[in-house]
Amino acid sequence: MARLIRTEKEVEGRFEEVWLVVEEDALEQWPAGPREIVGRPAQRVTGPMRARGEARYTSDLRLPGMLHAAVLRCPHARARVRLELIRKCSHGLAGRACLSDASLAYARPM
User: Fold this and answer.
1) Which residues of 71-91 are buried (b: 16+ CB within 10 A; e: fewer)?
2) Has this prediction a pTM greater than 0.70?
3) What sign for the dihedral angle of Cα 36, 37, 41, 43?
4) The total number of structural domains that make up the chain
5) Which DSSP category does 49 fall into?
6) 58 φ, ψ (degrees, to nearest 5)
7) Is residue 85 part of a domain?
8) Is 24:44 a contact under the CB 8 Å cutoff?
9) Is it the case that residue 8 has pLDDT exceeding 70?
10) How far apart are CA 84 and CA 75, in angstroms?
């Protein structure tokens, strides 16, 4: 037996009311009886560890030879980073590499 269902469809911020014809499937409905999982609060396994500050996150991961990145952004729109800053970055003691728009000119735009 078919059912008529009213639903709302959103495309690019515009909402539209749509009526759909849905054929009844041959699957059984949710079995009757006590609900053991559905409708009950889920226990958070990591809750106590988070509260004590013992939980581990991906930012806590440290591997040998691991490099970190920092992005230098200019506060001015359409401004360029000067060549002296790029040279200081590439010759600095803490830095391994310095990437600029000139060094990434070969990369395809995303």
Assistant:
1) eeeeeeeeeeeeeeebeebee
2) no
3) positive
4) 1
5) H
6) -65, -30
7) yes
8) no
9) yes
10) 18
Specify if 63 maps to a domain. no
Question: CA-to-CA distance for 33 and 36, rounded, in angstroms?
Answer: 9
Residue pair 17/5 in contact by the 8 Å Cβ criterion:
no
Structure tokens at 27: 């699957």
pLDDT digits 0-9 by tens, 34-77: 777 777 788 888 888 989 999 888 888 899 988 877 777 777 87
How far is the CA of 101 from the CAs of 23, 80, 108, in angstroms?
A: 56, 9, 12
Share of the chain above pLDDT 70, in %: 73
92 domain-assigned: yes
Asked whether residue 79 is domain-assigned, the answer is yes
Q: Is the pLDDT of residue 94 over 70?
A: no
Per the structure, the complete domain to which residue 99 belongs is given by: 70-110
Integer Cα distance of 68 and 62 in angstroms: 10
